[in-house]
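Recall that a protein's primary structure is simply its ordered list of amino acids. Everything else, from secondary elements to tertiary packing, is in principle encoded there. The following example makes that idea concrete.
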Amino acid sequence: MKRSASGNIFQIVTNLLIVSVWFVNGLVCKVLDLVPRHREIVARILGAEFSWILTKLIGVSEILMAIWILSGIRPVFNVWAQITIVMVMNVLEFFLVPDLLLWGRANILFASTFCIFVLYSHKNKP
């Protein structure tokens, strides 16, 4: 089946939006530690002793997720990995550290919306 130009543009834009979420959160918020709240969340959930390095490792893994998305390798597995990671992380934060979340417990609504967007963009590939 032939892809339309608008279908290609849709896929490129949605992929870049999703990639940017993973890349910015990984690099800016965690690896560069420009949003210390992320390190505080890790410290509260996993312990303060290793929170600095664990936050960096989580950031690197988020950057790797962005690269994986761009690679196009095993896209179905990638989509479900993204959804699982985001939802597990947000459920843990919902119960364990709601006071550290940008929008408190409402953060889970934004996470769910992101997951729906990830799934929708995958299901609507041209």
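The mean pLDDT is 95. The chain has one domain: 5-123.
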